[in-house]
């Protein structure tokens, strides 16, 4: 009965909005709800978060409650967050196309995942994407094209430890009426290979959630229907990407790992082998143990679904049938498999321009400007010198010099490229083109206008 009630409850979820339900690390599906904090109430789970000043702004409704599992994710890996209109994937779709707006991803390092508060200080932004004037698309448009899958690269310069990863969607369709709509939840991750340093976020990047935005911010009151948003500013702090040239020793995750004894997983619940049996009494004891675990599975099932609980219930039923038939030597080996909802599409590369209007920590305590934007004299304040006629001189040929040996290039892991870095963009997750500013990307400003062909592709549009 419990399974039927739960299924009906999950199916009643409204499809008007969206919820982050499923987490991927380097394309590997961690399982629906696994390592993800999400609302308990299926009827309102995909609704926007209110108020902007409430603690739910950190990790969504019920986001202060940790889940048992923490997913390992090495520095430099690709994190993918799946958003669904229907959290249990009963219906296709990620978010209504009218909900246009920007996206961001924040991190927070915690000492204790199970006792530290999600709300409060310590948050910083590692990625954002707003409106692309070249394509006329918002980040949410790109998210929809990617079937609700949003990918970002985890910086390599983050110290080892436990982090909350918070994807945020901001829908602006009602912002002009004073109703900007935020959708966010949090994944629990463990970085095992970071540099052996303390995480020190410069004050201009570190924020408190709630408190990181004001209701009158232009990015929250923007009228989506007033024309192309050529000067739209994404709310929140600038992107901060810590960069380190070395990584520390691999750290061992001491909490939140999926136990080796887990033979089936649903969300953040694991089944364990039932006791062995050799007579009628121990046979039914095994069956009782199985159904007790089944109850625990359904009680803990997230709004993303209980498919694994159904698999386990079928196993319990088969054990009971064996006892009824007089087959007391058991239990029969469990052969079921974890059920994954179909992935809606290919896992995308990280998209958006994380380097535009950002500063980057070089790893030596120095913070430098890193604005990957083409400028003109009028933008920089420089004044062009008037042309001066020079006498025409015959060029004097210089002796030929042997070309210096080029060092072997490595694929960029932090989005930088060029001779000073020894990195190429070809094959990187940031894009294959190297801009004249030394940044990897796939947009026009990266692939033309001074594109560095020695360190990436150059194209004509």
From TrEMBL:
Q: What does the entry give for GO biological process?
A: cellulose catabolic process
- Chief localization class? secreted
Q: Which GO terms describe its molecular function?
A: chitin binding; hydrolase activity
Name the needed cofactors.
Cu(2+)
Give the enzyme class. Answer: oxidoreductase
**Belongs to which family?**
Belongs to the polysaccharide monooxygenase AA9 family.
Species: Emericellopsis atlantica
Q: Would you name any one GO CC term?
A: extracellular region
Its keywords, alphabetically, are: Carbohydrate metabolism, Cellulose degradation, Chitin-binding, Disulfide bond, Hydrolase, Polysaccharide degradation, Secreted, Signal
Name of this protein: lytic cellulose monooxygenase (C4-dehydrogenating)
């Amino acid at each position: 009965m419990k399974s039927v009630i739960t299924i009906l409850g999950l199916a009643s979820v409204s499809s008007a909005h969206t919820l982050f339900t499923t987490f991927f690390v380097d394309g590997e599906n961690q399982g629906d709800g696994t390592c993800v904090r999400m609302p308990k109430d299926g009827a309102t789970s995909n609704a926007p978060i209110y108020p902007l000043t409430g603690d739910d702004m950190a990790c969504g409704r019920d986001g202060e409650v940790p889940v048992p599992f923490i997913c390992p994710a090495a520095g430099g890996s690709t994190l993918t967050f799946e958003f669904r209109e229907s959290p249990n994937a009963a219906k296709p779709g990620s978010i209504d196309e009218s909900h246009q707006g920007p996206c961001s991803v924040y991190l927070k390092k915690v000492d204790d995942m199970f006792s530290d508060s999600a709300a409060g200080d310590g948050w910083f932004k590692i990625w954002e994407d707003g409106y692309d004037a070249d394509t006329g698309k918002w980040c949410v448009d790109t998210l929809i094209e990617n079937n609700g899958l949003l990918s970002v690269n985890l910086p390599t310069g983050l110290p080892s430890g436990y982090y909350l990863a918070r994807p945020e969607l901001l829908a602006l369709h009602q912002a002009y009426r004073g109703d900007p709509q935020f959708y966010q939840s949090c994944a629990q991750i463990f970085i095992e290979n970071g540099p052996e340093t303390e995480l020190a976020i410069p004050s201009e990047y570190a924020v408190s959630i709630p408190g990181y935005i004001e209701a009158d911010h232009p990015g929250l009151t923007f009228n989506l229907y007033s024309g192309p948003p050529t000067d739209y500013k994404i709310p929140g702090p600038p992107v901060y990407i810590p960069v380190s040239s070395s990584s520390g020793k691999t750290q061992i995750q001491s909490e939140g790992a999926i136990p080796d004894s887990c033979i089936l997983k649903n969300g953040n619940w694991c089944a364990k082998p039932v006791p062995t049996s050799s007579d009628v009494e121990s046979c039914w004891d095994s069956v009782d143990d199985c159904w007790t675990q089944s109850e625990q599975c359904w009680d803990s099932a997230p709004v993303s679904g209980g498919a694994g609980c159904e698999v386990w219930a079928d196993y319990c039923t088969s054990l009971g049938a064996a006892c009824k038939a007089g087959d007391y030597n058991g239990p029969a080996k469990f052969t079921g498999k974890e059920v994954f909802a179909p992935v809606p599409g290919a896992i995308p590369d990280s998209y958006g321009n994380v380097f535009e209007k950002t500063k980057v920590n070089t790893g030596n305590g120095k913070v430098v400007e890193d604005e990957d934007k083409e400028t003109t004299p009028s933008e920089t304040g420089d004044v062009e010198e008037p042309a001066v006629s020079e006498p025409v001189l015959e060029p004097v040929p210089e002796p030929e010099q042997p070309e210096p040996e080029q060092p072997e290039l490595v694929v960029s892991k932090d989005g930088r490229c060029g001779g000073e870095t020894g990195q190429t963009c070809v094959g990187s997750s940031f894009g294959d083109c190297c801009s004249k500013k030394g940044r990897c990307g796939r947009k026009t400003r990266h692939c033309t206008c001074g594109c560095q062909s020695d360190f990436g592709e150059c194209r004509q549009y």
